Amino acid sequence: MAEFWADWGMLAYLAAAAWAFFEGETFVILAAAAGQATGLIDPWLLMLSVWFGSFLGDQLWFTLGQRYGAKALRRIPGAEKRLATAMGFLERYGTLFVLTFRFVYGVRNVASAACGIAGMKRSRFAFLNFIAAGLWASSFVAAGWFAVAWLGEENTMHALAGIGVLVVLFLAWKLISHWRRRASAAAEAAPAAPRAADLPPPPAPDAKQPLKRVAV
């Protein structure tokens, strides 16, 4: 991680912003931890970069939800159920949900679109989203930065490596589960082959028809 900053310099902060645009808690923690351990990464620039990237990413999802409705989420596995959950949270908690949905597992990817679908004003969402993105960025940068000071560089890297492995395994499990659901849905949608019991019986021979002699 530190080598990436050493090679790319300020462009690395743009990469961090792009990563946060799509959601990247693990990346932010790793970058902050590497910055504390090596001194090559400025935590303030890192925080501003991922703040800006996260803000823009959720503004885009809000706009897509506002314009296209639930169709904007059709490519996300399990989007309908997550959207229903997000809409319920939004109706119940309102502003608090917008400020905290980045920390809520299961609805993070659909929450901004849910706000757009629900008809929230763009100016209100932009204001709350800006604050929420700042809270998210500062929290995860601080988590990575102070984890090194608390655990030590070596133990922090081991812990983060373990987290990375768990994330990869979780994503693999989610992908396999998605493939299985698609295969099961395709099997249910395919027409079933007729069973022998469902086939019509063969026609009975006509008793009045004379039997033909076979020459031996």
Topology:
Layout: H1 2-8, H2 11-22, H3 25-38, H4 43-68, H5 79-93, H6 95-100, H7 111-117, H8 122-151, H9 153-189
Helix pairs in contact: 2-4, 3-4, 3-8, 3-9, 4-7, 4-8, 5-7, 8-9
What does this structure look like?
There is one protein chain. The protein has 216 residues and is mainly alpha-helical. The protein has one domain. It is 71% helix and 0% strand. The mean pLDDT is 79.
What is the average per-residue confidence, as pLDDT, rounded to a whole number? 79
The largest sheet is:
none
Fraction of residues in H or I helices: over 70%
Q: How large is the count of helical segments?
A: 9
User: What is the chain-wise order of helices and strands?
Assistant: HHHHHHHHH
Q: Which structural class do you get from the secondary structure elements?
A: mainly alpha
Q: Give the terminus-to-terminus CA distance.
A: 92 Å
Low-confidence stretches: none
How large is the radius of gyration?
28 Å
Report the β-strand fraction as a percent range.
under 5%
Indicate the overall shape: globular
Overall tally of structural domains: 1
Number of beta strands: 0
